[in-house]
Amino acid sequence: MKFKELLISLSLLTQKMNNHNYWMQNLIELLKKEISNSVEVPVGAMIVDKGKILSTAFNKREETNLATAHAEILAINSANKTLDSWRLTDTTIYITLEPCSMCLGAILNARIKNIVFASFDYKTGSLGGKYNMLNYVSNDINVISGICADENSKILSEFFKKVRK
Ligand SMILES: [Zn+2]
């Protein structure tokens, strides 16, 4: 690769990363508002399509008493309604925590193109934190991890500190 081409591809990469930072930061700010006085484990998900937010949702397992009320599932349901389609082709899902196997299944079923998450979940993460389910599927999907991870880890550890008290 020529030097100029290298520079161009580097700047494209930075642009992409900045975009991911922008949306994740956006999601984390909303999550911070959501969690004041909430008993839910703080997890947020946002689905973005061509620079537009289709849906934003937060974990609501306690409030709804539904085992499936993870942020990702609620965000997918809402985006499906918005688009009036079960296909979320070419969209990106931003998640503050690595998805569990149930949510990854839903993401794959919705044909989402990109998964961007902040922190790894070493207990139930399905994209490398606990195990990597992508080894077993043929979907063409991009995964980016670690975006705004430090900030999100702080939110999680403060929550668990509060719960322990
Ligand atoms: Zn989940």
What are the salient characteristics of this protein?
165 residues; alpha/beta; five-stranded mixed sheet; 5 strands; 45% helix; 18% strand; globular; binds zinc ion
Overview in brief:
This protein has five helices and five strands, in the order H-E-E-H-H-E-H-E-E-H. The protein has helices spanning 3-35, 61-64, 71-83, 101-109, 149-164, and strands spanning 44-49, 52-58, 92-97, 114-119, 142-145.
User: Per DSSP, what share of the residues sits in E-state strands of 2 or more residues?
Assistant: 15-25%
The helix content is 40-55%
Please give the number of β-strands: 5
Which cofactors or ions or other ligands sit in this model? zinc ion
Shape: globular
CA-CA gap between termini: 56 Å
How many DSSP H or I helices? 5
Order of helices and strands: HEEHHEHEEH
How would a textbook summarize the main sheet?
A: 5 strands, mixed
Mean pLDDT: 93
**In terms of structural class, how would the helical and strand content be classed?**
alpha/beta
Low-confidence stretches: none
Radius of gyration: 16 Å
Q: In what order do the strands lie side by side in the largest sheet?
A: 2-1-3-4-5
